Amino acid sequence: MRVIAGPEKKSRVMSEKERLVTAYHELGHAIVGHLLPNADPVHKVSIISRGQALGYTISLPTEDKFLTTRAELNDTMAMTLGGRAAEELIFEEITTGASNDLEKVTETAKQMVMRFGMSERLGPRVFGHDRGQPFLGREFNSEPDYSDEVAREIDDEIRRIVEEAHQTAAKILKEKKGELDTISQILLERETIEADEFVALLDGKSPEEVFPPDEEETEEPSEAAAEKGSAREGARPRVQPKPGLAGGGAAEMRSDEP
Amino acid sequence: MRVIAGPEKKSRVMSEKERLVTAYHELGHAIVGHLLPNADPVHKVSIISRGQALGYTISLPTEDKFLTTRAELNDTMAMTLGGRAAEELIFEEITTGASNDLEKVTETAKQMVMRFGMSERLGPRVFGHDRGQPFLGREFNSEPDYSDEVAREIDDEIRRIVEEAHQTAAKILKEKKGELDTISQILLERETIEADEFVALLDGKSPEEVFPPDEEETEEPSEAAAEKGSAREGARPRVQPKPGLAGGGAAEMRSDEP
Amino acid sequence: MRVIAGPEKKSRVMSEKERLVTAYHELGHAIVGHLLPNADPVHKVSIISRGQALGYTISLPTEDKFLTTRAELNDTMAMTLGGRAAEELIFEEITTGASNDLEKVTETAKQMVMRFGMSERLGPRVFGHDRGQPFLGREFNSEPDYSDEVAREIDDEIRRIVEEAHQTAAKILKEKKGELDTISQILLERETIEADEFVALLDGKSPEEVFPPDEEETEEPSEAAAEKGSAREGARPRVQPKPGLAGGGAAEMRSDEP
Amino acid sequence: MRVIAGPEKKSRVMSEKERLVTAYHELGHAIVGHLLPNADPVHKVSIISRGQALGYTISLPTEDKFLTTRAELNDTMAMTLGGRAAEELIFEEITTGASNDLEKVTETAKQMVMRFGMSERLGPRVFGHDRGQPFLGREFNSEPDYSDEVAREIDDEIRRIVEEAHQTAAKILKEKKGELDTISQILLERETIEADEFVALLDGKSPEEVFPPDEEETEEPSEAAAEKGSAREGARPRVQPKPGLAGGGAAEMRSDEP
Amino acid sequence: MRVIAGPEKKSRVMSEKERLVTAYHELGHAIVGHLLPNADPVHKVSIISRGQALGYTISLPTEDKFLTTRAELNDTMAMTLGGRAAEELIFEEITTGASNDLEKVTETAKQMVMRFGMSERLGPRVFGHDRGQPFLGREFNSEPDYSDEVAREIDDEIRRIVEEAHQTAAKILKEKKGELDTISQILLERETIEADEFVALLDGKSPEEVFPPDEEETEEPSEAAAEKGSAREGARPRVQPKPGLAGGGAAEMRSDEP
Amino acid sequence: MRVIAGPEKKSRVMSEKERLVTAYHELGHAIVGHLLPNADPVHKVSIISRGQALGYTISLPTEDKFLTTRAELNDTMAMTLGGRAAEELIFEEITTGASNDLEKVTETAKQMVMRFGMSERLGPRVFGHDRGQPFLGREFNSEPDYSDEVAREIDDEIRRIVEEAHQTAAKILKEKKGELDTISQILLERETIEADEFVALLDGKSPEEVFPPDEEETEEPSEAAAEKGSAREGARPRVQPKPGLAGGGAAEMRSDEP
């Protein structure tokens, strides 16, 4: 349904203000992700809308990964909250567009505490029933798995973890506000920035250096790259998202149109 | 059923008191919505009943929107509570007619806190399971998603947000009580007021200036406009209302007849 | 089933004590309803049993209504509790017969607080899921909608509202104890009293004045009136009773026979 | 199933100790019921086992009843707890045999508080969903209907009501311990005592006076009376027992054999 | 399935340590049961494994029973906890083998408090819905039946009752440690001890006296006795175990193999 | 699905860092398990990935077991947490790979407290409904089985038990850090270490002594051994894991790839 409706939506025009918010939001992701050592490298940043996404930042790991460390999860959450943090910094206002980011961050923090034993306060155990097999009878069981006191501690730990990631993102963007402003303007003009271009701009290169005149025309986002990102996106409908992918793949700016 | 019963209801006559309450209620929406910078502009105000609605105020955004800001949600909630606030101000009494408004406002405040991370106290995370896919097994899971302490904080934040919107509406109407009285009387006579007429009246123009004699006969609400409003109304049965529409479309005064 | 069993039950005879209790109960409704400005006028009072009802008081609004005010809901609750209040005043004892009245009053108070935003303490919002569409999936969701602290405040408000209505009824009947005694005796004899007769008796007219000898024979409750009352009664099986009808229609004295 | 298994069980023999406990238990019901003004009169007492019942006390109202007063419910609960109270008084020990009595008393006390508004502390309202129509969708709704604080108050009131009934029964039996001992021995011998015989014995008549020699042979419990009691017993499977019957019909001493 | 797998398991050999633990466990049941006046007499003790049971103690009432006293339930619980108490006393260590005993004891204590009114603190009432008819609609109702405060009191009472039974068992075994040691060694050798042999050994008779040389060969547990015990065991799958049987029948030492 | 995808995954290459983490993790299990007297002896340690497992440690009991002691459960939990403890000690960082270990430990601790009465604080009783027969109606019952206060105590006990096992593992590995480092390097090179080789290395033998040159080529993990381990693994899908197996069989390092 969403796919069918897609083309129709593309004919609608985003306002200049919304394009600006989206550009800052995506660059918030990209800059935080680039500067944190344990987040996947940025592959592409774009404000060309795809489906429900008004813009997207694709990050890809440098190699296949089987294990994810606590540091990687923390940095990925900070990158995911970079979009919201950029909105706060620049516009002193926030939008509905980050709801998907907030869901990812909440899910990751929850799994760190409840599945991966990454809260020292709560210790090396799991909490709650595994929701991976929802129709195996056991699921209908509504006996609580832990007391309300433990539920409170879990909430406290999730809040602490999310808040730290948010502050990490806010701090980085405050320090890089100049770059955020400059590159956002470039993204507004060019609509898509590739990984090497992004790194060069962040290193202080001028647009003229980064985009030589003969390459000036904006290339369409290649089908292949879109496919790859889309393939990772394809993982989203899974009931229990893998935390290693929480911020990887594409961090999108979501429209609140259905 | 409701649709079939519709025509029959139209034959019933509203009392003069109910028409008066309805006129003030609708103008409460319209005046608050007009004066707040981030609510959608008023398109039409009417006390001609449609279905279960005794009256309606249609507001339309000036352009397509993909993102909604916190300020827009706050102003829209104040506009939605403008009807109740007008009843309180004028009659020192309240009716059952605002229940639909209260539902919209509650849903918006809840989403601001639970889906959009718009409460600083609770931070950039989501709360509760997404209710968008009610039959995907996961829904049957009754494990609580957060502790009762967090539930209390969520309630506190919702109450604060709703209360602020209510006070915003009450304050505006108190300042504009004269206009509210004057235009309500005009609405009682003409039954429908268009956007430009409403703005002119609010600017202090006399009815004679706004409605020249040769146009005096009340025009039927055009099918097209009704259709458009109706189309937006059509979005209501969705399980999870989009907050951007919370007060947009039509803010109705509801009858408590089935 | 209940309808089939009906005739059989009619052959059973109520004791004189039960007829007396029923007469006072129904007149409790009628006198409180008559003296409160915002309750629907009394149409008929009867102790002729119908189905499970040992007696009934029919009240009808003077005109069609689309909106119900807080004052109307309060007065209607007081009228509904008038039966119980009369039992307490006269017999210093209470019976199981008022359970249906208590259900109506509880439902109305609950809706005032939870659906109509009529508690200042809790503010202009709704609480709980709308139970109007019980099979739409969402209903199976057992996530709590509000914290236990708010549940406590809701309970406090319901208790306050019900208690005030109860005291209103008790106070009126204490002041009108003489009329209550007198007219109850007349109701025991005549079994049914029409609206104008009731008003005349309450105004202090003697039975001889109100019921001239040539009209002495008790008329059967007219089919038409019974039908009308019955039609309103027919609304009761609805999942969510309309508060405007909470005390209107017929306030019955219920038998605890099945 | 239970009926089929019945004959087989009858071939088993109750021990003398169990017959003695049963005799005291049944006479506990009968004496308390006889001496309280608002309980139904005792019709027959027996220790002939029927189905799962080791003994039974049948009480019948003197006339058809449509309303039940709070005093009637209180006295009936005391009568129902009379069996347990007799065991405590005589044996300083209690058995599993009273579980059915406890269920009836709990259900009555619960309904007094939750359905009939008979607790002054909680006031004239109902609590909880009516469980009379378990398959109407609404039943699946697990939203709590009241807060845990109110649940506590309900528990307190139920406890108070049950405790008062228990003390009423204990006090009466302590005063009538002589009669309890005497008539229990007679019941052990004769196995069944009819209403008039019971009253005569309680009035201090000797067995010789009450049972003249020519009538000495124990009559079988008449089919007709058994039928009538059984018919009232037949009401038990109803989902929501009528409180007016809580102790009426037959108060049995239950075996814990299935 | 379990039955089919049975033979295969029998071919596996229990370790000497496990046979020793089992012997002490079973004699713990037997000695406590024998010395408490209100537990059923011991019929046979065995460490020959049957199905999932590594050993068993069969106790049988001396006569058919219809009523069970509180003292009988208390003594039976102590007997059931005698196995665990013996393990603690002798090995200062506990095993998984007592889980079935713990279930029985918990169920009995729960029923004493919740079904039989045997806690003075909570009084003569029942708690919770009867779970005997799980598919009658009412079962789906998740409204709580009592407050969390009452749940706490119920837990306290269950804990007190279980703890007292545990201490009773521990005290008896401490006093009879000599007999426990001696007879356990005999049970290890002979594998099964009949009622009269057990009583004789406990009375201080020597093995030579109890088992004359010509009877020395261990007899197979007779089919008939096994059948009888098995028949009582057959009662276990019932949804609501009868408390009078809680420790009767066979108290087994369970393997934790499936 | 997972099985089909298996071969494809094997073609992916683990990074050197991940192989190192896995080697330490598996040796953490092996060293703790070897040094605790009540854990099953180590049979094999490997970092050859199998299905979702990046490495595995197989431990096998020396004989068939029917009973499991509290000490065995405690030592097995410490062995299971040895992998996580090794990661913490060596890398001062933790990964998602231990989630399966945490599940096992939580389940064991929960059963010790809730099924086996192994918490002195909570006593010899069970808590909660047995979840072994999820579709027998009773399971749908959501009445709580114990109060929130008891839920808190259960949580406290689980936390204490898990924490003690964690500290046991951490303490052992801190003392054996030298051996952990040395053997991890050997495991990285050889990929699999058999039981006798492991014991020899832990005893301080050099790799040259343990692996004579003519045996140097790494043997494939034998099908038979893999089968046996796999056979024990086959027990995992059971709804209620047997605690005696909690750490036995194979303690795997899990990939977070699906």
Question: How would you describe the overall organization of this protein?
Answer:
Six copies of one chain form a homohexamer. Chain A is built from nine helices and four strands. Chain A has 258 residues and is of the alpha+beta class. In chain A, strands 3-1-2-4 form a four-stranded antiparallel β-sheet, sandwiched between helices. The first copy, chain A, is elongated and about 65 Å long. In chain A, 50% of the residues are buried. Residues 1-11, 131-142 and 218-248 of chain A have low confidence and may be disordered. Chains A and B meet through helix 2, helix 4 and helix 5 of A and helix 3 and helix 5 of B.
State the assembly state of the protein chains: homohexamer
Please compute the radius of gyration of chain A using only Cα atoms.
Answer: 19 Å
Number of beta strands of chain A: 4
Sum up the overall morphology of chain A in one term: elongated
* Main β-sheet description of chain A: 4 strands, antiparallel
Order the strands across the largest sheet of chain A as they lie in space. Answer: 3-1-2-4
Helical segment tally of chain A? 9
User: For the terminal residues of chain A, how far apart are their CA atoms?
Assistant: 10 Å
**How helical, in percent, are the residues of chain A?**
40-55%
Most extensive chain-chain interface: A-B, 49 and 39 residues
Order of helices and strands of chain A: HHEEHHHHEHHHE
Low-confidence stretches of chain A: 1-11, 131-142, 218-248
Our estimate of the beta-strand percent of chain A is 5-15%
Q: Supply the helix-strand structural class of chain A.
A: alpha+beta
The residue-averaged pLDDT of chain A reads 80
